[in-house]
């Protein structure tokens, strides 16, 4: 079967995008599953493949995908340069209902000092 997000993605892929609401729901499902995989340290390969195949031409998706990649890489590597480039390239981009303050609050609840970096 699979997680609810994956099931929703399979259904949407099968029926196509008959209207904007369904395509937006598909976009949210894919992005949310990538975010969830990042937080739970799970494999996000399938969701990234879906995003690359179906969502990369949506103007709002590319900056989100690049930011998620930066966050994923930040677990192991310094992302100062990548963040600087992202901010330069997407200086006018605003995340909808998302902020770094939420990540900072979440980070502060983690007790493992290695995980905080």
Summarize the structure in words.
- The chain is an all-alpha fold and 117 residues long.
- It has one domain.
- The chain is 69% helix and 0% strand.
- It contains 7 helices and no strands.
- The chain has helices spanning 4-15, 20-40, 45-55, 61-73, 80-89, 100-109, 113-116.
- α2 (20-40) runs parallel beside α4.
- The longest helix is centred in the first third of the chain and has 21 residues, at 20-40.
Task: Describe the structure concisely for a colleague.
By secondary structure, the protein is mostly helical.
Query: Are there runs of 5+ residues with pLDDT below 50, and where?
Result: none
Mean pLDDT: 76
Structural category is: mainly alpha
Major sheet, described briefly?
none
Distance between the termini: 36 Å
Q: Count of helical segments? A: 7
Strand content: under 5%
Number of domains: 1
Secondary-structure topology with pairs:
Blueprint (H helix, E strand, L loop, with lengths): L3 H12 L4 H21 L4 H11 L5 H13 L6 H10 L10 H10 L3 H4 L1
Helix pairs in contact: 1-2, 2-3, 2-4
